[in-house]
Inverse folding.
């Protein structure tokens, strides 16, 4: 059990039926009632969300006093192993250097609406990491929504495998956390570095780190960390010659202002055929094409074909609406992901730049309204009613 004395947040493992049931109800409130996700394992009668991994996973709850405000699950492979679909998605055959009983899978991280932005999220993440170290785990697999990739990278997680479509949550980025990756933690200033110091035997050897780089260096994304000069070089090149140079989102901004807009963004790669955005999914990110081609599709037909510099997902970004169409990769490319948090930061610190971005967004929404077919309107009306 861990406690943040300054804020009275306590994190402990759910060991009783009542504690586990409370976590399942919190999941239901967030996934089903708030986000409208048709998740596997939903029990509407009991208002609970349970899935098969709960049988082997260790559930942690964050409490403010006696009130449950957040949860996370750590599922060690030693408690039941993983199915073939998991092995295929996370390329686990590449990790046989580590015994499988030293693997874990972390997920179902969530915080109740009224407690987001407070200390509960940090307390849960840190408690789960220390539990994993105490159990002797060496690596954890996880997946992230595109807009949260940078958060996980700042913790020390690494991208290493192709993105995939989760049937519940949509387009996801698989990641791995090497629990003893001290050099990485220090590089990105991860809070895990301080906890790792208490478990010196858990530090990865230089040979292990060299092995990872040799296996996955082409997909590892440290070049997109904010501190790295390569990130800025990459963006500057795209700003001058690539999709950013002609993006309507950045129209009227100087090069420096454009960099200011996207400095907290993250870049992901996609492949032809990837289901990048799924109609009906919740999402608050907006996507700017740096390269490649995507198609926006609806049952009435293809709505648009977009290439470098163009934007999609802007309706959900502005209005918190569910996604109103599917987006598929047509040619391999790169996406820059913009979040609402970055826009709020701009509004606070650079209101003139934020105003220009919002004006550009308004123009884009008007232009998109000109080609949206009338047959799509009923679906849009239903989306507005659901949110």
């Amino acid at each position: 059990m861990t406690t943040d004395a300054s804020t009275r947040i306590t994190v402990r493992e759910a060991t009783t039926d009542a504690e586990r049931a409370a976590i399942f109800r919190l999941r239901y409130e967030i996934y089903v009632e708030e986000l409208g996700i048709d998740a596997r394992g939903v029990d509407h009668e009991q208002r609970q969300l349970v899935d098969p991994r709960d049988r082997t996973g260790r559930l942690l709850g964050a409490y403010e006093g006696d009130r449950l405000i957040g949860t996370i699950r750590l599922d060690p492979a030693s408690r039941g192993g993983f199915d073939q679909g998991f092995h295929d998605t996370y390329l686990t055959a590449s990790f046989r250097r580590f015994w499988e009983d030293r693997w874990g899978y972390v997920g179902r991280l969530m915080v109740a609406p009224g407690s987001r932005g407070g200390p509960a999220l940090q307390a849960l993440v840190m408690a789960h990491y220390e539990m994993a170290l105490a159990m002797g785990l060496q690596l954890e697999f996880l997946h992230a929504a595109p807009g949260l990739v940078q958060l996980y990278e700042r913790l020390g997680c690494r991208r290493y495998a192709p993105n995939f479509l989760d049937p519940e949550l949509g387009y996801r980025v698989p990641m791995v956390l090497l629990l003893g990756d001290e050099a990485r933690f220090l590089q990105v200033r991860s809070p895990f570095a301080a906890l790792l110091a208490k478990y010196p035997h858990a530090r990865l050897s230089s040979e292990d780190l060299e092995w990872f780089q040799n296996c996955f260096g082409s997909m590892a994304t440290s070049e997109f960390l904010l501190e790295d000069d390569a990130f800025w070089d990459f963006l500057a090149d795209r700003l001058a010659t690539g999709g950013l140079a002609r993006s309507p989102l950045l129209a009227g901004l100087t090069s420096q202002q454009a960099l200011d807009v996207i400095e907290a963004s993250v870049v992901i790669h996609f492949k032809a055929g990837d289901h990048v955005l799924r109609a009906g999914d919740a999402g608050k990110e907006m996507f700017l094409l740096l390269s490649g081609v995507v198609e926006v599709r609806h049952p009435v037909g293809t709505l648009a074909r977009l290439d470098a510099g163009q934007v999609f997902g802007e309706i959900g970004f502005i209005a918190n609406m569910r996604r109103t169409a599917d987006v598929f990769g047509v040619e391999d490319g790169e996406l820059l992901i913009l979040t609402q948090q970055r826009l709020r930061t701009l509004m606070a610190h650079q209101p003139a730049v934020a105003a220009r971005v919002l004006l550009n967004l308004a123009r884009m929404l008007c232009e998109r309204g000109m080609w949206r077919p009338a047959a799509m309107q009923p679906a849009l009306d239903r989306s507005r009613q659901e949110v």
Q: What stands out?
A: Residues 221-229, 370-387 have pLDDT under 50 and may be disordered. The longest strand covers residues 286-298. Residues 351-371 form the longest helix (21 residues).
